[in-house]
UniProtKB/TrEMBL annotation:
Organism taxonomic ancestry: Bacteria, Pseudomonadati, Pseudomonadota, Betaproteobacteria, Burkholderiales
Stretches assigned to the DNA methylase N-4/N-6 domain: 97-348
Enzyme class: transferase
The name this protein goes by in its record: Methyltransferase
Annotated GO MF terms: DNA binding; N-methyltransferase activity; site-specific DNA-methyltransferase (cytosine-N4-specific) activity
Amino acid sequence: MVRPHVAEPRENIASLRLTANEREEMEFTSQALGFKSLSDYIRHLHKVAVAPEKKRVAKLNGKTYGPLIEVHKTDLGKIYQGDSLEYLHHKVKPGSVNLIMTSPPFGLVRKKSYGNEDAAEYCEWFRPFAEGFHRVLKDDGSLVIDIGGAWKSGSPTRSLYHFKLLVMLCEEYGFHLAQEHYWWNPAKLPSPAEWVNVRRVRVKDAINCVWWLSKTPFPKASNKRVLAPYSDSMKGLLKNGYTAKLRPSGHDISDKFSKDNGGSVPPNLLAIANTESNGVYQEYCRANGIDIHPARFPALLPEYFIRFLTDPGDLVVDPFGGSCVTGMVAEALGRKWACIELSSEYIRGGIGRFQGDVAAIGRGRPALYSINTPCSQPVDEAAVPLMANGGATR
Ligand SMILES: C[S@@+](CC[C@H](N)C(=O)[O-])C[C@H]1O[C@@H](n2cnc3c(N)ncnc32)[C@H](O)[C@@H]1O
């Protein structure tokens, strides 16, 4: 950015006390925005601060969302720093987004007591996003929300907040529940330990809900884009043929069953271990002293929905961008994209995802997970009484 011409010489020096982190962040952002120096950047911030309100911040229903700063750009996408409400309500054209793929912060609920009030508060907090999502989505577009459940504080019972959110989105904002999915993380540790390992009155909570919503009942989609490998028994059937017959259930299994469709239709249970700890992103963060985002989803989650629900060239938006996994995957799959994130620290890490070759999504070979059948161990019930008080005491 060119240094603005001033009549008076700049002879005054002001010293500014910053932490090492603040300084690094400010220098990073000022360079990313093309300023020649920190001084130019600070002068610019001052100008923005004193500019007339209507130019500085956008308003919707009396609410302001602050400036959006474009901090990184590729051929296909952009990372913005700022509040995504600004993007959703003012930046992007209505009806222009094919897929919103996101994972909103659930910490809002986790930190609190997790009761009904918090669930209601979460829904209230979400309302302007819901409006914005509806505004920007194309009629055949999809909204995919990955959201983890929460335990009520001090109680072995669950918050309803993510179900309430789903009901609100459908009943008040007119979204359709195209299909709920569940992301099973086989690597998730048993938690909370008190209910699962100590009092033994609950089982491992190993899934996140993934609400796939749409503006109309017919969002564009094809499950042929996300096929899974056939099971060994299906491969055998395809090889050796199948005799058409009526199943005991009454289902007529015709000879169409033995047609090779290139793979099997996956279930709505997505088995994806969230174990990546040494990928390019982590290495970049460690090398540059950047905090690693603590709540990332694995690349395969956005990959599944992007392939399933969009075509190359379509626009994919992640309004809670975090470490920009969605952007990276969209870039690799040839989709246009935008990630919006409040935290400059997470954005600094996210930019690292675009330093190398983004074309290959690092996933390795397809993984096969098995879930062991419960009730498969012999138990002497007399020796293992149920917790008579439901685990109210240890
Ligand atoms: C669960 S994390 C998303 C993680 C991301 N999916 C990933 O894999 O890295 C939610 C993110 O939303 C960001 N966030 C919260 N409110 C926001 C807002 N109004 N605008 C933009 N980002 C926001 C938080 O800073 C946080 O990084």
